[in-house]
């Protein structure tokens, strides 16, 4: 006997009430489930379209693209072909075809929010039927379309 205990006996451990299963009264399996769930939320939440984290990443990416597109518009010239425009501007976000040519649309603003695609958010680069730049900008595009419609109506 040493200090009132027998050498062959294991010392008794006293547990506080409610802690039989670890902190918060949860067993090891329950804690593991909680940790895995939290991990999944942290990893998956940024990918959810409606999540604030996704919106922040999306917003930053769009703002960067908008800034780049606005800067690159300054490098365009009348008469450039579509290949030259693509080298400067990259692929358009949208494109439209007409009898008189085509228009490539690049995002240059974000007035309608992250998921909006209002016409005012895009700047058209307008090509003639030979694929040459004849102008760019929302006002130019509107006037070009009106001019074409007037020409067709007169004929």
What report would you give on this structure?
The protein has 155 residues and is α+β, with helices and mostly antiparallel strands. It has a domain of 84 residues: Beta-lactamase Inhibitory Protein, Chain:B, domain 1 (2-Layer Sandwich). It contains four helices and four strands; from the N terminus they run H-H-H-E-E-E-E-H. It has a four-stranded antiparallel beta sheet with strand order 1-2-3-4. Strand 3 and strand 4 form a beta hairpin. It starts with 27 loop residues before the first helix and ends with a helix.
CATH level 1 name of the domain at 71-154: Alpha Beta
Class from secondary-structure proportions: alpha+beta
Order of strands in the sheet with most strands: 1-2-3-4
Oligomer: single chain
Which overall shape is indicated by the principal axes computed on the Cα atoms?
Answer: elongated
CATH 2nd-level architecture of the domain at 71-154: 2-Layer Sandwich
The helix/strand order is HHHEEEEH
Strand content: 5-15%
CATH fold group of the domain at 71-154: Beta-lactamase Inhibitory Protein, Chain:B, domain 1
- End-to-end separation: 118 Å
